[in-house]
Amino acid sequence: MNTLAGVKIKSMSPQFLVKDIERSVEFYNKNFGFAVDFRVEDFYVGLVRDGYTLHLKSGNPSQEERKNKRHNEDLDVIFTVSDVDALYQELIAESVEVTQPLCERPYGKEFYIADPDVYILAFLSTH
Predict the structure, then answer these.
(1) What strands lie across the sheet with 15-18, from one edge to the other?
(2) How far is residue 88's CA from residue 72's CA, in Å, rounded to a whole number?
(3) Which CATH number fits domain 11-60: 3.20.20.140, 1.20.1560.10, 3.30.720.120, 3.20.20.150?
(4) Residues 64-70: contacts with CB within 8 Å, 24+ apart?
(5) H helix or E strand, kind and range, residue 81
(6) Which residues in the chain come in under a pLDDT of 70?
(7) Is the model's pTM score more than 0.85?
(8) pLDDT at 1
(9) Distance between CA atoms of 72 and 80, rounded to whole angstroms?
């Protein structure tokens, strides 16, 4: 009997290794409205918005890996949002680093940004 058939995935949380946890918390709060859900001392933070979570762990992300991901546009996470145009304009106004400008794709509209540790975040509105 396959026990996995009865198991339901209830959520998933990407975890980013970040140099400065407070800087990252501020970035995700200010630009995307993520709130602190929990903290574990000064090295781990869970963020939440609209029932979705993102975890941040203090450490030293590999600069070489981050550089390669940016160069190759390898995404770390994709957010599907209700109004990609409005979000894009808001982030431009906040001088967030855009790595892929807003563009049309066969599946929708999207753009990419880099966070303070150069995690590449995609924002997408589907047709």
Answers:
(1) 15-18, 52-58, 44-49, 35-40
(2) 21
(3) 3.30.720.120
(4) 66/117, 66/118, 66/119, 67/118, 69/118, 69/119, 69/120, 70/99, 70/114, 70/118, 70/120
(5) none
(6) 1-3
(7) yes
(8) 54
(9) 21
